[in-house]
Amino acid sequence: TGVTYLAVALCVAATVVRDATGNATDLVIPGVACNNSAVAACELGYNFSSCAVDTCKFGLMNNFQVMTMVSGFGPLIIAGTFSATLSSALASLVSAPKVFQALCKDNIYKALHFFAKGHGKNNEPIRGYVLTFIISVAFILIGNLNTIAPIISNFFLASYALINFSCFHASYAKSPGWRPAYKYYNMWLSLLGALLCCVVMFVINWWAALLTYGIEILLYIYVTVKKPDVNWGSSTQAVTFVSAVSNALSLAGVEDHVKNFRPQILVLTGSARTRPALLDLAHSFTKNYGLCLTCEVFVGPRSEIYQEMNAGMEKNQQWLNKTKRKAFYAGVACDNFREGTESLLLASGLGRMRPNTLMIGFKNNWRTAGRDAVQSYVGVLHDALDFEYGTVILRINQGLDVSHLVAEEEEMLKAAREQEALDNQMMTNGGKAKGLFRKSRNSSQQVLTTRVSVCGPTPAQVAKMNEKLMEASGQFKKKQPKGTIDVWWLFDDGGLTLLLPYILTTRKKWKDSKLRIFIAGQPGRSDLDKEEMKSLLKKFRIKCSDINVIDDIHIKPRSDSLKNLDDMIKPFCLHEGSKDMIQADVMQKEHPWKITDAELSSFEEKTHLQVRLNELLQENSKSANLIVVSMPIARKESVSDFLYMAWLDILTKNLPPTLLIRGNHKSVLTFYS
């Protein structure tokens, strides 16, 4: 076919001059100029130089019926032209609406979804046929083939260019799914074809080429911005994957540097929807610039939880994408919570792209949760520090867990869907089974009524608590009011306690919150300590609105505060001091997890420090948008788990949202930029 086309073109070009007057008497006259486009005719003895001034009706450039003139039998050319035109028109009329219908079914362009509907057993796109007919008639009514041809030709060439480039791009991506069957296929030939098509578009008509490119770019921008829920398995995905792997491998060969440190957070949210406040705050730290993994530990028999875990993987990731939270979901199945978290801490991430900070919610129910749950929770904190993770605990007075509200919402949606399906079924079946469906509907309503009556009406107090919980859960998703982030930097942990709140102030939602720094000082050295801190912050290039030196931190707490602590730990104390030695030994063996009198005496100063800190926080930071405090650390096997939980509880009690932060003693701040 290609050879035939080229032969015809060469034959016509070899037998017809560019411009001709059509007058056989326009011969070459000696002494008269014969040039420009008439040179070829001059050599044949004709002078058509007048065509440079006046428009001529003959020649390749002017006579569109030139094929009929040079052919052996002119009517055959006309018949062939009609046949080719009709076959192309019919092919386009049938195939274009089918392709257009497939595009509309993908629902990429919402306004075109009307044309997705088909008719008959072959799903014929009748609406597409009508639209194609209207467009065709509109072009025909232009009445000038020379006006239509450049536009149509450019659109065809654009299609060929995109097909060629798609082939090249798929080859470049090295996707195993791209397996061209053509023996002589070459990716660079595809690229050359795409470039030639683009060049020819401008050669034919530059303004039509620009119009075509403009339409293509607008369509591409629309798809990019709208991100339709369609998966084509495109070569772009393959190239992105190859690029990501390549970048991860190149990053693995570079050692970490303090200047490039950024928090990569593994946040224990459970299901992605379960603790929204925890996820939102973690996302504020990482945003688009760091890694955020929202993780869930499934505890129980493996055979039962694998199915739940696998179903939850895609569901949770889809929810994260839908709510525009730039995070990844990961789940793990283990016999207990601590083992699962340990697996996540050790195995999460890829090369240098792995978490360096653990974020977890405060265990509000530690006094009723039981010994195993508390030991597991505290063990996770110890494991994180052992694995050189920074550790962050978030406490909100109303709590973090909204799983019961999510479950209720899903139950209501399920019931609504069932009711809608039942109504649709009734409408479909009409009056034939009206009595049967009425009975079914009544029975379903009876079930719902029974379910509600068994549960009973929600008490006003519970409803109020749930309302406050939902409000607290969404507080980090909205813009924060004008206020402060109070940072109580009590220990040098490498700077994580200072870096995380600084990162928050760079986010749009927190831009109205100013940093206030509180440090512990010695009596009589307040001014000197303040100047030293100012100098340090200046070197770190961290701006804060105020620096406060607390020099009365080691004063004994008030008696009412100490009583609150005593009431808190009383159920977990062994009280072996009032017993003889033998009885005390027996009690310790029976309850090794309880707080002994010796332990309380040994850590009395540190215990009182947590109580005193809470008093100071109540005095100075009660109105802050967020409080950040250096997290106290308990030595393994020296401080019992319940005493440590009491420290954390009494330290953060009755305060605004509070973050307890402890770095891994590796520097995350540097003087150098």
From TrEMBL:
Recorded superkingdom: Eukaryota
Residue ranges of coiled coil: none
UniProt keyword annotation of Transmembrane helix present: yes
Protein name: Solute carrier family 12, member 1
UniProt-annotated location(s): Membrane
Keywords for the protein's UniProt record, in alphabetical order: Membrane, Signal, Transmembrane, Transmembrane helix
GO molecular function: sodium:potassium:chloride symporter activity
Transmembrane segments: 126-145, 151-172, 184-208
InterPro entries recorded: AA-permease/SLC12A_dom, SLC12_C, SLC12A_fam
Alphabetical list of Pfam families matching this protein: AA_permease, SLC12
The species this protein was found in: Nothobranchius furzeri
Domain Amino acid permease/ SLC12A intervals: 1-266
GO biological process: cell volume homeostasis; chloride ion homeostasis; potassium ion homeostasis; potassium ion import across plasma membrane; sodium ion homeostasis
GO CC terms of this entry: apical plasma membrane
Domain spans labelled SLC12A transporter C-terminal: 275-673
Signal peptide annotation: 1-22
UniProt gene name: SLC12A1
Membrane topology: Multi-pass membrane protein
